[in-house]
Amino acid sequence: MSDVIEDLTWRGLIAVSTDLDDLRKALDTGIVTFYGGFDPTAPGLHIGNLVLLLTMRRIQQAGHRPIGLVGGATGLIGDPSGKSAERVLNPREVVAGWVERIRAEVAQYLDFTPGPSGALIVSNLEWTAGLSAIDFLRDIGKHFPVNQMLSREVVRARLEAGGITYTEFSYQILQANDFLELHQRHGCSLQVGGSDQWGNLVSGVDLIRRVTGDSVHALATPLITKPDGTKYGKTEGEAVWLSPELMTPYAFYQFWINRTDAEMPGLLRVFSFRSRAEIEELEREIVSRPAARRAQRLLAEELTALVHGAAELGKVQAASQALFGQGDLAALDDLTLAAAIAEVPSAEISLGAGGSLPSVADLMAACGIVPSKSAARRAIAEGGAYLNNAKVSAEDAVPADADLLHGRFLILRRGKRTVGAVVTRRV
Fold first, then answer.
1. Tell me: the pLDDT tens digits for 251-266?
2. HSE-up of residue 238 (Cα within 13 Å, Cβ side)
3. Mean pLDDT of 71-87
4. Which of 152, 154, 249, 284 makes a 20 to 30 Å CA pair with 410?
5. Please, where are the H alpha helices in 17-136?
């Protein structure tokens, strides 16, 4: 077993913990069963969840046993992580569907090989569904001093913002009970979670001490933010999803490719499984050879392969290269090409039955890679205009139907790097 605490510390993955020396001793002297929880409050997981998943993977690789808990019960009520708006209570059938999707996503990052460190996946609905309100209050609620519950940061923030419902207030009890159940059923002695859940994590530690007298541990990872302090995907519609149904592999790859140099040292340490020496070398290259953007490319490749598989990474790389004239656009499948087009300026053109396509100059202006039709003609005259990676020589050139990739796409390029697309539809 390696010193996983040292590795996590170097990577900046420990925001706060219970007695770290005691936890290190436990990890060094035997196999520790630990868990991380994932509530189905959305149709899939995002890169914030990936931080926890990869931290769990690192701890498992150090020889310990992970439990992935999917909140089939807690997902029905949400959690008090927000500071103002009450979480929407989703229908039971919707949550049930999300549970299965998230269970599969969590399982992708853990090793289930039979043995002492083989992973488990559980749902807290297993022990919560049959729990009556009376039993809940008698057996669990009696261990929670209200003044202590009110002191939790997430609760205090909600109270200051205007109030909190009993449903959300009780979430910390349910999460603490999960830790107790896993401790009693599987010998779980460590919970890992995000720093915004720290109050809930220590509630579980305290509950286990009160009920069993045992001493257990909690470790929180930091929230991953941009250099300006804002959270990735904080703005609605900008979430970086792990599911290909919610975010295409191409868009996922491009997200990492487009990170700034200032972001890369932190992102490499958190998300890459490269060694410390390799990462430190990449950090030096970011300073000495910033134009190469090697760190961005290597991290994009590593994470796209991890999340979506090597085959999808190959498709993404082929599409990325082909868009800029370094590959065969016609060889790309429909879905991959469509995903690539979604990430560049584009225009939709409606064509009547038997109608001809507009000129290349018109299309270049329509998709925004030139400011005007006259600018497009100048680009053509200067030899800097391309249709499907073929140079356009005539200023009045018009694409033929045979040029339509998969019967509906055209890729236009000005110079080496300015790419746009046209999507056609027949009416």
1. 999 999 999 999 999 9
2. 8
3. 66
4. 249
5. 20-29, 47-61, 92-107, 125-128, 133-135
Q: How many residues does the chain have?
A: 427
Q: Cα separation of 139 and 382, whole Å?
A: 80
Q: Whole-angstrom Cα distance, residue 398 to residue 396?
A: 6
Cβ 52 vs Cβ 193: under 8 Å: yes
For 336-347, give the secondary structure using H, E and C.
Answer: HHHHHHCCCCEE
Sequence-distant (6+) residues with CB within 8 A of 156 are: 150
- Residue 18 per-residue DSSP state: S
Whether 144 and 180 have beta carbons less than 8 Å apart is answered as no
CATH of domain 344-427: 3.10.290.10
Q: Which of 364, 427, 351, 353 is nearest to 392 (CA)?
A: 364
Tell me: the pLDDT tens digits for 362-379? 999 999 999 999 999 999
| Local structure of residue 247 (DSSP, 8 states) | S
Pinpoint the residues of the chain covered by CATH 1.10.240.10.
248-333
Contact 155, 146 (CB under 8 A): no
Helices (H), 187-240: 198-212
Q: Which fold has domain 248-333?
A: Tyrosyl-Transfer RNA Synthetase (1.10.240)
Dihedral angle sign, alpha carbons of residues 34, 40, 41, 45? positive
CB burial of residue 200 (10 Å; 0-12, 13-18, 19+): buried
